Amino acid sequence: MNTANHYHQPDLLESILSKLKELGLDQKPITRQHLAAMDEFHLQGSAVSEELAGRLDLTSDSTVLDVGCGIGGPCRMLADDFGCTVTGIDYTEEYVRAARALTQIVRLTDKVEFQQANALQLPFEDETFGVVWTQHAQMNIADKAKFYSEIQRVLQPGGKFVYYDIFGTNEGEVYYPVPWAEVPENSHLIIHESVAGYFPDEYYQLEYSKDHTPNATDFLSGVLEKIRSGEAPQLGLNLLMRESTGKKLGNLLRCLREGKVEVYAGVYLKK
Fold it and tell me: How far apart are CA 77 and CA 160, in angstroms?
């Protein structure tokens, strides 16, 4: 199974709209908060997105690119909370279709747009964006050098690259399936220390780095407990992973607890 097939859900948008109707939310103005448990498809959810955004000095003049935007939750948060202009790209057609529709529903289309695109061939001119943002995207990309070079190409001097990602360790093989891969062939984890090699000190300054592994582990443990107890949000990650939700999240939690993966965030300034 390739990456495109892993995330393929031709009726994703229809499933979301059906759930909104089932919950009675189609009869009232829908806000980002109604979607938050579902549209932030990464560990620690919206809280970590807001924490990272607070480190970027964003204003209404800021231009942001989210590489691997999923269904667009962080894009909408950045536009709504900071007034900046945001572009999201994702390789999965269904995610982009859902992202556009949900952005229209919460009335943010004047600030946010989405494109289906390959992260290794970003469809933008050099130095287009003041911020490039990515969360839980690089794990599916084997060519890390090309991935990071494309990010650097479209980032303006004085701009910032922010990442929040899952990284591998030397503690053995990951248990599959996990949220980003059914099988090892589609998972391309690197150790966190290797990221610095793509951002030489001559051109980039590391402004922030944090090990989020303990917080991410606690967060995921809480999510699984709610799933087991029947208290998980109905408009949640189950709509993105469906019947495999519990197994994938359970394997990821086991990997976190056994030290097979780690979660780090960082911010680089382009000199």
Answer: 18
Decide if 128 contacts 108 (C-beta within 8 A).
no
What's the pLDDT tens digit per position in 84-135? 999 999 999 999 999 999 999 999 999 999 999 999 999 999 999 999 999 9
In this structure, which amino acid lies at residue 12?
L
Q: Report the C-alpha gap between 75 and 81 in whole angstroms.
A: 10
Tell me the domains of the chain and their CATH numbers: 3-170+189-213+264-270 (3.40.50.150)
Distance CA 262, CA 246 (A): 20
Residues 138 and 42: their CA atoms lie apart, in Å, by: 12
CA geometry: angle at 23 spanning 22 and 26, to 5°? 85
pTM of the model: 0.93
Tokens of 237: 């990650």
**Token pair for 83:** 């007034």
**What is the CB neighbour count within 10 angstroms for residue 271?**
10
Contact 51, 74 (CB under 8 A): no
The two three-digit tokens of residue 166, written as one number: 């899952």
Rounded Cα distance between 101 and 261, Å, is: 34
| Strands of 112-116's sheet in order across | 112-116, 85-90, 63-67, 129-135, 155-168, 261-270, 204-211
- pLDDT per residue as tens digits for the range 51-72: 999 999 999 999 999 999 999 9
Confidence band for 157, pLDDT divided at 50, 70 and 90:
very high
Residue 260: strand, helix, or coil: coil
3-state secondary structure of 145: helix
Under the banding of pLDDT at 50, 70 and 90, the label for residue 25 is confident
Q: How confident is the model at residue 169 (pLDDT cuts 50, 70, 90)?
A: very high
